[in-house]
Amino acid sequence: MLDVRRMQVLRSVVTSGSVTAAAASLGYTPSAVSQQIAVLEREAGIELLERFGRGVRPTAAGRLLTEYAAVIGRQVAEAETALSDLRAGRTGRIAVRYFATAGAGLVAPALARFQTEHPGVRVDLRITDGGPDTEADLTLLVRSRNAAPDPSADGVRLIPLVDDPYRVVLPKGHPLADRRAAVDLADLAAEPWVGSERPGPCLDAVLEACAAAGFSPDIAVECEEYGAAQGFVAAGLGLSLIPLLGLGNRHPNVVVRKVRGPEPVRSIHAAVRESSLNLPAVRDLLTALQKAAGPVRQPD
Question: What is the pLDDT of residues 242-277, one digit of tens each?
Fold first, then answer.
């Protein structure tokens, strides 16, 4: 197998026209350069240089390898430049996975900030409802706030971003809609409910809060989409608990109130690959997400 470094030595000899000149350019001794050429000729199985006047010139095989050495040299230089840009966060690609309700209120403003600072970095954005994507650099996840800590997947760091509190959504004209203070969760025990969550950590946050208030909700309508849930509530089919990030577009015929005793909360985390945290662009995207999460903390 041909040694790339020795090919660059050959290129230096050919371009300079002599072993001595190449040695001076490379910082080697002439004998060291001659030894490198001799080893390369054994690897190639053919003579690469021939005497010409007081110097040397390439054989046909020497010219061939010199041309390839020039191509390799340019590619190495391009690779070094690309690597430097990647390390500095000027270029690259970041794979991000997110869940639907984090899109408008969290991911979109974070990406707007990030792309202003990193216009050369491409963000590959895909929606997911599962656990950490091992192929992604960053995945947004939901866990109930009171969930027992679980070990992160190998090579993944779980970073808390924001607690997303639930609000009760009531039809206009409901007796509790006139309250300006927060609604006690226990006051909702006898009401029919429009379920807004599928089984998982979001639903767990609601069920855990209801259990703490001493009841299990009576789900009259099953629904897994926040906009549709508001429509059912507006039609008078029940009330619903929806997180703030899911209330970006509010139905005109519903009223939204805080809940207490306790307040259901889902916790949003970023699952980030440990290796990706070494990249400035990924760290800056995480910072942008943390800043975008600020308005969620103080929405009222």
Answer: 999 988 889 999 999 999 999 999 999 999 999 899
Which residue, among 61, 58, 33, has the nearest Cα to 45 in the 3D structure? 61
The domain over range 164-265 is classified in CATH as 3.40.190.10: yes
Using DSSP, state whether 237 is helix, strand or coil.
coil
Taking residue 98's Cβ as centre, other Cβ atoms within 10 Å add up to: 24
pTM above 0.85, yes or no: no
> Which CATH code for domain 4-88?
1.10.10.10
- Count CB atoms within 10 A of the CB of residue 32: 14
Three-state secondary structure call for residue 196: coil
Domains 92-162+267-297 and 164-265 share a fold: yes
- Chain mean position to CA 65: 43
Report the amino acid identity of residue 243. Answer: P
41 neighbors 47 (Cβ within 8 angstroms): yes
191 token code pair: 């009401």
Secondary element (H or E) of residue 79: helix 60-88
For the domain covering 92-162+267-297, report its CATH number: 3.40.190.10
